[in-house]
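Weekly modeling sync, notes
Attendees: S.R. (lead), two postdocs, one rotation student

Agenda item 3: backlog of single-chain predictions. S.R. asked that every request posted to the team notebook include the full sequence so nobody has to chase files. The rotation student volunteered to paste the first one in as an example of the format we agreed on. Action items at the bottom.

Example entry:
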Amino acid sequence: MSDNTGRDLHAGSTKLLSAVMILVGAGLVIRTLVLGGGPFAIGVIMGVLFVAAGCGRLWVARKGI
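Predicted structure, as returned to the notebook:
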């Protein structure tokens, strides 16, 4: 197993988990709003934070920081 294969696996798994975080966050926001939560409900806040974290991870992975 070469070093590039390990890096490719790490980069791919980072992108996959970041996308899952974005989907989970969006699901939290949608579920909370459907169940009658307001904009400051804990589900909306946590959902927005999950989406932000997932987007941030993708941005950092793209930049290569």
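Discussion: group reviewed the output briefly. The chain has two helices and no strands.
Action items: rotation student to repeat for the remaining queue; S.R. to check formatting next week.
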